[in-house]
Amino acid sequence: xxxxxxxxxxxxxxxxxxxxxxxxxxxxxxxxxxxxxxxxxxxxxxxxxxxxxxxxxxxxxxxxxxxxxxxxxxxxxxxxxxxxxxxxxxxxxxxxxxxxxxxxxxxxxxxxxxxxxxxxxxxxxxxxxxxxxxxxxx
Length: 138
Description:
By secondary structure, the chain is mainly alpha-helical. The chain is built from 7 helices and 2 strands. Strand 1 and strand 2 form a beta hairpin. Helix 2 crosses helix 4. It is elongated.
């Protein structure tokens, strides 16, 4: 008889979902999950079609997410055998989760992330507590 595996679960932070468009936040959770699999010794190099199927998004949306995650300092794309492996920076991701999880106004949070990561294209690691406090405290 086959032993049943427990379903895998990866936490989808509410602040992450409120701070970014849904495809972007799903992409971030997916990449963090791939990083966890890589750290357990799994090969995470996959064909593009598989990434798109897992995320339920089109290639253009996926590429936009990759581009944004790269300038945010969350992602490095490494070419391997005609495909890419995506290396997720968990230190930067953990910092981003702290930022988006500690804000109470989702409207202000969205304005902050739009300013920080879209308009000015800061990296997550370059954002200081002073930046966050200045933005949320006026």
